[in-house]
Design brief:
Length: about 375
């Protein structure tokens, strides 16, 4: 179901759309929410699954308006507003900026390829931005921060806070600053009762020019992003050991230990259970697990999958193509580009994310089969 936000963009000449409103599918926001809660430590797993039920039942193409405020206590409002703000912002970035690979930032320096000295460096104190991201063809390097707010006067203050946060890091290769796009996104929620009545999505987006870097360092940067994206996604889905090796490969400074880690990663991938989607011939072998409102379920028989659907736990299979994981392990940027820029053909159930990932609702029509 399509819902709309009032849309403002700085600078206006760079806006990806000409309209004063922006459209987003609620299902796309929920899919972004699934990926976000899996890849963000500590996020509430079931939050993505209640979004549609919270919106005012005004139909397709109407504004994105909640029925009621997001809780009564301030801390609840802040927590839900921040989480839903990330869902909306990620769906917006995926649709309008074609970003598909997202690495989440913590509180410390993050190595993207430690051997090549490609890293994310902190510039000032305070919370770091939500993501560094890129497109499927390993381009459009982006630093992004999302905020959600209830400010009656609009999203301007939240956008300023987001912009400050987006400027707290830089990405460097061999000590040279890399060119990035910095994006701040603020979503001001609209409420059908007891709150602001209009939903706004405001964006600030200038380019931050850096220095030229070596092509091999550039490839290493994007492969590092992809490895972190994959590791964060598969860890809560029952593949913690493989995820840990992917992270070590990215952070490993020593050549001999790197080869040892690569030697561990490949058999771990070969041993991981490969899942296939019934009645979906276009999708190959996937590494992943089932996610419900209650969190991930790493193994469930076909009959259990139908029972989860009947109980309204909204089971979905979240997986990533095994061949892409292998290309990320082997650091094959050209193979990654070719694979991720190929046209995929989703059916009415399975939904791809342009990063080798799939979300498949489960139940009577679709089930996941185990395999090797």
């Amino acid at each position: 179901m399509t819902r709309t936000f009032l849309h403002s963009f700085e600078p206006a000449t760079a806006s990806p759309i000409a309209s004063a409103t922006v459209d987003l599918e609620v299902s796309d926001i929920e899919d972004a929410g699934i990926r976000e809660v899996l890849q963000t430590p500590g996020a509430a797993y079931g939050a993505w699954s209640i979004l549609d039920a919270l919106l005012a039942p005004t139909g397709v193409g109407t504004p994105f308006i909640f029925k009621e405020p997001l809780g009564q206590a301030r801390e609840v409002k802040v927590a839900l507003s921040g989480l839903f703000g990330r869902f909306v912002a990620r769906a917006y970035l995926e649709r309008y900026f074609k970003l598909s690979i997202f690495a989440h930032l913590g509180s410390r320096t993050i190595d993207l390829d430690r051997r090549r000295r490609v890293k994310v460096a902190r510039l000032s104190r305070g919370d770091l931005p939500d993501w560094i991201a890129c497109a499927a063809d390993l381009s459009s390097l982006t630093v992004a921060e999302a905020k959600g707010c209830h400010d009656v006067g609009g999203p301007a203050k939240a956008l300023d806070r987001a912009w400050t946060q987006a400027g707290r890091i830089e990405i460097t290769a061999q000590g040279r600053k890399v060119t990035v796009k910095r994006i701040a996104i603020a979503t001001r929620w609209g409420m059908a009762a007891a709150g602001p009545t209009e939903a706004h999505l405001s964006v600030r987006d200038p380019i931050d020019e850096g220095e030229p870097i070596d092509p091999q360092e550039k490839d290493a940067l994007f492969i590092g992003l992809l490895r972190l994206h994959i590791a964060n996604l598969i860890k809560p889905l029952g593949h913690a050991e493989l995820a840990g090796v992917l992270r070590r490969i990215t952070h490993q400074p020593f050549a001999r230990r790197l080869q040892e880690d690569l030697g561990r990663a490949r058999p771990l991938l070969d041993a991981a259970p490969v899942r296939e989607v019934e009645k979906a011939t276009a999708i190959g072998g996937l590494i992943g697990g089932i996610v419900t409102r209650a969190g991930p379920i790493t193994d469930a028989a076909p009959a259990d999958q139908e029972a989860l659907a009947r109980l309204n736990l909204r089971p979905v299979f979240v997986g990533i193509e095994r061949d892409l994981i292998r290309a990320a392990i082997d650091a094959e940027p050209q193979a990654v580009r070719i694979r991720l820029t190929q046209t995929v053909h989703p059916d009415e159930f399975a939904r791809p994310d342009r990063a080798g990932g799939w979300i498949v609702p489960l139940g009577q029509e679709r089930r996941i089969r185990g395999g090797t």
